[in-house]
Design a protein that fits this description.
Elements: H1 9-15, E1 41-46, H2 52-60, E2 64-70, H3 73-84, E3 94-98, H4 104-107, E4 113-119, H5 137-146, E5 147-157, H6 160-172, E6 176-181, H7 197-204, E7 210-215
Parallel strand pairs: 1-2, 1-4, 2-3, 4-5
Antiparallel strand pairs: 5-7, 6-7
């Protein structure tokens, strides 16, 4: 369902400008430039939605710099405001980008990202739309360029079809699947899991969550 356009959306985004990276050239040489501590690992979430995961991960992992990317401006507006609302606890290691995976090359130089998170990406269920899935080998090639050698992709989805497709793509692309599960919330990694809004909603309805960690 398409989100209704936010009232005064542009003004609201502007009010959160301190957390928004709006110019790709800022990251051209080193994506850590926006952060005060440039020695930390760099983590990227593609499709951050309303920001629960990004804010939670940044707070839980102060040893990492975290960039959250969202292509829909009105959705990113909510995520930005959520991060700003943390006030005294707002992590200094979190920034946002309004953009999508098709433009990663414009934002991130080669070998600059340590960890990549894909959470509940659009499954594009029609066979003819396979190339639009963010785990398709064309996107995996983009991630390979952007990630450091040995960099990790951490993937979560409730969609069994997308999960099966993704595992096949990972294998065909030659990636090492370090860990996988079809029931994340009852696995050994459940305790440290930070949930997205979508994940919380679906898990409360009894849906199981698929997850995999792969190394490039």
């Amino acid at each position: 369902m398409r989100m209704r356009k936010k009232k005064h959306g542009e003004e609201r985004i502007l009010a959160c400008a301190e957390l928004l990276i709006s110019d790709p050239t800022v990251l051209k040489d080193d994506p850590r430039i926006p952060f005060s501590d440039k020695e930390k690992e760099l983590c990227l979430e593609i499709g951050c939605g309303k920001g629960n995961f990004a804010v939670g991960m940044a707070e839980k992992n102060p040893d990492c710099n975290f960039i959250a990317m969202e292509r829909v401006r009105d959705v990113c507006c909510i995520a930005l405001e959520k991060a700003m609302a943390c006030k005294e606890t707002r992590p200094d290691n979190l920034r946002f980008i309004i953009g999508d995976a098709d433009n990663l090359d414009e934002w991130f130089p080669e070998g600059s990202v340590d960890r990549l998170y894909l959470n509940f990406s659009d499954p594009w269920p029609k066979a003819g739309h396979a190339k639009r899935r963010l785990t398709h080998r064309n996107y995996l090639a983009r991630y390979k360029r952007m990630l450091k050698e040995g960099g990790l992709l951490i993937f979560k989805t409730d969609n069994v079809g997308l999960f099966d497709f993704s595992l096949e793509e990972f294998a065909e692309f030659g990636l090492e699947i370090l860990w996988q599960t079809r029931d994340l919330h009852n696995s050994e990694r459940a305790e440290g899991n930070v949930m997205t809004e979508y994940e919380k909603n679906f898990s409360e309805k009894g849906f199981t969550i698929n997850s995999a960690i792969v190394r490039f």
